[in-house]
Amino acid sequence: MTANIDNEVVAGFGDEWSRFDQTALTEEELGRMFDNYFSIFPWEKLPGNAVGFDLGCGSGRWARLVAPRVGKLHLFDPSEDALAVAKRNLASAENVEFAQAGADNIPLDDASCDFGYSLGVLHHIPDTEAGMRACIAKLKPGAPFLVYLYYSFDNRPAWFRLIWRMSNAIRAAVCRMPHGPRYVISQIFAILLYWPLARTAFLLEKLGMNVESFPLSQYRHNSFYVMRNDALDRFGTRLEQRFSKSEITAMMERCGLKNITFSTTSFWTAVGFKAEPHA
Asked: Cα(101)–Cα(79) distance, rounded to whole angstroms?
């Protein structure tokens, strides 16, 4: 059976998290980014000493804030370099365990976890739905699963989608370069595109304008460090897939999730609960 993984993508993320280990993030900014994803997560429904997993943990930035809230957290990533960064960032956490694993070889028993999440990961593997199904298999019935998948701009105007297609053509060329040139070019984009557009959106918002459709306005409250990181993430990744809200809903349902809720600010972040097995 062919592994559901792209080794070039794994190597790229290992390089990315080694360069951006998140130690430059302030606690305030990390908290805001965390809340952007986890605002819809049903913490109140977790049992005491809940056990769960973070698939594609990367630098461990989300796990830093999840681990203190639960009993045990398993962190998985197929990149050895990424795991090394995560281990440093969570060195003081006593309730975490690490394993080098991807979606197709999660080292947990089926139906053993009280929750799980995978943020910004499953759209970077060849078969996103198969990866999601593998995650859901590890959950107990009724357990929540939080996922963030790249959106297909289904809620954006045509001109916005045209700009993205142009940027994607650039990404297709940059992502095939060696890690060094890929990094340098991404940082140029951060300087020449991300920072000026984000700061323009910030100023326009201060003037009372609605900037939700303004290019890169989602970074208007972020530091330049985050912009640099995301520029590399955006232009340096060889494989990405994008989905509409309806496609994600159908995928989650086919994977055995129900009672699905979507974030209204992070497109598309969604949470669902594992359905009870059929009698």
From this structure: 8
Q: What top-level class would CATH report for the domain 7-152+242-274?
A: alpha beta
pLDDT of 2 > 70? The answer is: no
Distance of CA 33 to the CA centre of its chain: 11
Which letter, b or e, does each residue of 200-225 get, where b requires 16 or more Cβ atoms within 10 Å of its Cβ? Answer: bbbeebeeeeebeebbbbbbbebeeb
C-alpha closest to that of 25 among 81, 64, 73, 56: 64
Q: Apex CA 15: angle with CA 9 and CA 21, to 5°?
A: 120
- The DSSP 8-state label assigned to residue 186 in this structure reads H
Do residues 117 and 41 touch, judged by C-beta distance below 8 A? yes
Positive or negative: CA dihedral 188, 189, 190, 196: positive
* Entry pTM: 0.94
Q: Is there a contact between 66 and 54 (Cβ–Cβ < 8 Å)?
A: yes
Task: Measure the CA–CA gap between 260 and 241, rounded to whole angstroms.
Answer: 21
Rg (CA), the chain: 18
Q: Which letter does DSSP use for residue 273 in this model? A: E
The Cα 249–Cα 262 span in angstroms is 9
What is the domain partition of the chain in residue ranges? 7-152+242-274, 158-236
Give yes or no for a cis peptide into 268 (omega within 30° of 0). Answer: yes
Confidence of residue 233 (pLDDT cuts 50, 70, 90): very high
Asked whether 111 and 138 are in contact (CB, 8 A), the reply is yes
